[in-house]
Amino acid sequence: MITKILKADRAMTQVMEELSSTENRIAFARQAFNDAVTLYNTKSESFPSNLVANTFNFTVAELLPEATSEIRNAPRVSF
């Protein structure tokens, strides 16, 4: 019985670590996307790149919003 509890405890710890790792990867990807969008917007508004951007009707890209409290709250996991 104690062995099953210890295995369950290890499994739960592993799940929590995976959730935390996933949240970190999402935050990193969001930041990388926003960095790329900022660079794109800056380049498309700067000379001489803006000549090409205006010619081909490039539009301003939108940044992803920062994680709100609703996004940060991880779903509850229960077994």
Give an overview in words.
The structure is a single chain. With about 80 residues, the chain is an all-alpha fold. The protein has one domain. Helix content is about 70%, strand content about 0%. The chain is built from three helices and no strands. It has helices at about 1-45, 50-55, 70. The chain is rod-shaped, with a radius of gyration of 22 Å.
Number of helices: 3
Helix content: 55-70%
Total tally of structural domains: 1
* Structural classification: mainly alpha
Q: Beta fraction of the residues?
A: under 5%
Mean pLDDT: 85
Uncertain runs: none
The total count of strands amounts to 0
Family: Belongs to the LemA family.
Membrane topology: Single-pass membrane protein
Protein name: LemA family protein
InterPro entries: LemA-like_dom_sf, MamQ_LemA
Sum this structure up briefly:
The chain is mainly alpha-helical. It contains three helices and no strands.
Protein traits:
79 residues, mainly alpha, 3 helices, 70% helix, MamQ_LemA, LemA-like_dom_sf, transmembrane helix
List the helices and strands and how they pair.
Elements: H1 2-45, H2 49-55, H3 69-72
